[in-house]
Amino acid sequence: MITLKTVRVERFAVDGSFIISRGAKTEVDVVYCEVTDGTLVGRGEGTPIYYEGETAELCADAIETRASQNRPLTREDLLQTMMEGAARNALDAALWDLEVRMTGTPLWKLAGLPEPEPLVTAYTISLNDPATMQADAKSAAAKGYPLLKLKMDGEADLERVTAVRLGAPDARLIIDANEAWGDIDIEEMTSELKILGVELIEQPVAAGLEDNLEGVMSSLPLCADESCHVAEDIERIASRFQAVNIKLDKAGGLTEALRLSEAAKARGLKTMVGCMLSSSLGIHPAFHLAQTADWVDLDGPALLADDRIGGFRFEGGKISLPR
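^ that's the sequence the OP posted. Answer follows.
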């Protein structure tokens, strides 16, 4: 019988600050949990989806409540008894980890995924004035990151991207509007950004306003983030977007994320596997799913002042499993 061993809130400092259209973060709280079969222990971590009203404390409470129920603590049962989100993700990850330890089978085999290899990951350039973003992009490129993800807010964004292109002339660029382009002419903006070498626009409009994208002739593929959490969302957004950003904290774990990835690809959508700010423990299952993705954005641990011991390696613009 599998039971909850421990659950707690942990805090990690950000290296500098992480700035998007919704505000700045200098630290991130995560929910950490362990499950056990009485001998072995599996670990998991989730980062609350703050724009959905989640907090680490609420997630910890949700995990304790689920564990106290007279139901089997299995990944399949979690899908029936918990809402998607960081709490379910942390428990789901811990159960996968425990199964790996109980069976001696690596996670990629259990999940039916390719054997993991190092992957090029995007590196986030926080929202700032054009000159600062140019300097940050130049620094990231000097560290070997070939793919940069630029945070935007709907004001002076073209100037920001132009500045970044000057700072990192050879970098591939992804734009993350974080729902801030509701008043932007997307057709005109994407035409200009395509000239600057941008290859993808993430979440231009607010979740719930996807109908505003119907009929828009974007020069660049649009990627759903806040608009798509679980597999059932695909039918609703498939005609407005050409890609979907799969985050395990949104989906509520790798178990649901696998379903989401399959549903997206069945509708001809490309996939990105992304993350919230988190430690390497938090993105461990996502790294395995990312082996099947078109874009990878798993720089969460690289943005922290200090990661967990034995975390992922970030070298030459790639993320690799610990040695």
